[in-house]
Each structure stands twice: as C-alpha cells, then as structure tokens.
Specification:
mainly alpha, Rossmann fold, Tyrosyl-Transfer RNA Synthetase, 2 domains, three-stranded parallel β-sheet, two-stranded parallel sheet, 13 helices, 5 strands, binds tryptophan
Length: 334
C-alpha cells in the first residue's frame, strides 16, 4: 500500500446509476481500492444545488451507497460516507469561497451548460459548486481524484484554490495539488440514441441508457434499439469517425470485454451491427444484472446501508476535524 497516495471521489445521489457511472467511475474506484487508501463520498450537498424532493433525495443517497457496495467497494477497506454528515465540507467550502475568485468561477463551462439560458434563475449553490468540490477533496488532503473528463476543469480549480491558499497563508505544501485520474481506455460512454451526448440520467428516453437495475429483458431491448450504422463494421477506428453511435457501441463492447478496440474491429469487420449487439447484450447481462440485483437486495435493508454511512462518516470526521483545526489556525480563526 502506497501511504502517500490518498484517493477521493464523489458521486451525486441524483437517481439511477447507469452504465456510464459504472464503467467511467465505479469500476475504477474498485481497482484503486486495491492499491491505495480511498475515500468515496455520496455528495448529497452537491445534489441540492438543483431542487430535490426530500423523500427522493433520501432514497437516492441510500441507492448510490448500495451502488458503491454492489459494484465491489468495501466499506472496511475504504471510507464510504455521505457528504452532509461531515460538517467540515460545508465549513471549508465557505473558506474556499473566500479564496476562490469570481473570474475563476466565471470560466466554468459546466455552470454555463447547467444554468442554461436563464442564469439569473440558477441557485447560487450551483455557481459556487466547484468551491465545495475543492473542499471535499482538500478537507482530506487527497492527492488523487478519479473523475470523468467533464470534471477536469473543476479539478484544475481545486488546484488553483490549494495553490492560492498555500501562498496567501504562507504555508507551501500545506494542501497538496490534487491530480485527476481520468480513465484512459474508457472513452466516454455516450447515449444509445445520440452518440454525441454523454449517457445521462436526465436524458428523457430510457432507451438512451443502460441502468444498473435494468432486467436482462430491458438490456436486450435497449441494445437492439440502439442506433448503430447501416453499413458493416469496418476494420479500422478511423472509419468510425463520423459514426458516433457505432463507435459508442463498439467501445462499450471493447471496455466490457476487455479486448482493445483495434482487436475488436479486426475480429468483427465485415459483419453487421447485429453481431456486436448480440455479443454486447450477453456480456452486459452477465456483468450488470448481478450488480442491479445486489442493489435491489441492499435497498431492502436500509438500516444496514445507514449503518455503513454512519461508520464511514465517523472515520471521515476524524481526518476532517484534524485538518480543519490546522486550516483554521493558518487563517487566524480562534
Ligand atoms: N462534481 C462531481 C460530479 O458531478 C461530483 C463530485 C463532488 C466530486 N465532489 C467531488 C468528484 C470531489 C470528485 C471529487 O461528477
């Protein structure tokens, strides 16, 4: 175990976990857990930057926790908890809101996308969301952060905040500059209906995504209906350039089968897309359905899930309080 490396990541409890979350985040979390100390957080305070129905939020926090466990995270090895139960996240986020600059936040592309055309109506929380994300990571002085490519800019902001804090308070090296761990081989998992959009829980059609709780029948239907291409599978990646849906299906297959895309194309070239669809369906059923079943089983015992979060929060709080004590001291708070 490498003691200097500390991994932190967060997942928002905003609904059904899907194949994009699984291949892009959860599987990677599980691998990292084998070699490093890891902290995985259900970021409920991030979720409320847009309105959540209280009963839905409560259930989603537990379901995301169930998704963590069902994917193979071990609450004994790693710290698994929900953000709002460790008050240091909110406290450090305030401090960072005083370190971070308006100009920095104004450059965040995700805010622009999420706030849409009527920025005046977006919550202030949505705007300062990256400061809270920096607080999540730096509260534990985490060094490595597995995230999707869409979070890279937020992570750069976390580094800017860490650097400015270290400089303003004359404490070089106090906060580490966290490194993103962006999975290389998982090209982003895209919508099954539109290969230019990320697979997402907010896209209207359920046919656009494979949910972890989907039945074998659902998976079969969705893959069958997925957009592909009318010509045959080519023998090289370049020919897929303007065919985002075909590229997406083949890359998901490559990722789940662990066969690199070049090799997949060599094996499948000349066949039509029903061939990769059939193979992908079988693979997904054997990999995803057991995870979905386990999530449903875990959701049948909410007390057990609450206990996991509570134990994790206790462990997280110990690290957070020690670090916060030093942070307050650096700033001059009494
Ligand atoms: N913003 C991340 C997302 O939407 C979630 C997140 C919150 C996060 N805090 C974090 C990820 C800290 C990594 C580290 O995906």
């Amino acid at each position: 175990m490498n003691n200097k490396k500390l991994v932190f990541s967060g997942v928002q409890p905003t609904g059904n976990l899907h194949l994009g979350n699984y291949l892009g985040a959860l599987k990677n979390f599980v691998l990292l857990q084998k070699e490093s100390k890891c902290i995985y957080c259900v970021v409920d305070l991030h979720a409320i930057t847009v309105f959540q129905k209280p009963e839905t939020l409560r259930s989603n926090i537990l379901e995301t926790t169930a998704g963590f466990i069902a994917s193979g995270l071990d609450p004994v090895k790693s710290i698994i908890f929900n953000q709002s139960s460790v008050s240091g996240h909110a406290e450090l986020a305030w401090i960072f809101s005083c370190v971070s600059r308006l100009g920095w936040l104004n450059r965040m592309t995700q805010f622009k996308d999420k706030a849409g055309s009527d920025k005046e109506k977006a919550s202030v929380g949505l705007y300062i969301y990256p400061n809270l994300m920096a607080a999540d990571i730096l509260l534990y002085k985490a060094t490595h952060v597995p995230v999707g490519a869409d979070q890279k800019q937020h992570l750069e902001l976390s580094r800017d905040i860490a650097q400015k804090f270290n400089k303003d308070f004359n404490c070089a090296g106090f906060f580490p500059l966290p490194e993103p761990l962006i999975p290389k081989n998982v090209s982003r998992v895209m919508s099954l209906r539109d290969g230019t959009k990320k697979m997402s829980k907010t896209e209207e059609s359920d046919y656009s995504r494979i949910n972890l709780k989907d039945s074998a029948d659902d998976i079969e239907k969705k893959i069958k209906k997925a957009k592909s291409d009318s010509s045959v599978i080519p023998d090289n990646i370049k020919s897929l350039e303007n065919k985002p849906e075909a590229f997406n299906l083949l890359s998901i297959y490559s990722e789940v089968s662990k066969i690199n895309l070049d090799k997949v194309l060599k094996e499948m070239s000349g066949k039509d897309y029903s061939y990769v669809k059939k193979n992908l369906t079988d693979l997904l059923i054997s990999e995803i359905c057991p995870v979905g079943k386990e999530i449903k089983k875990l959701m049948g015992d909410k007390t057990h899930l609450e206990n996991i979060l509570q134990k994790g929060s206790e462990k997280a709080r110990i690290i957070a309080e020690e670090n916060l004590k030093n942070i307050r001291e650096k700033i001059g708070l009494i």
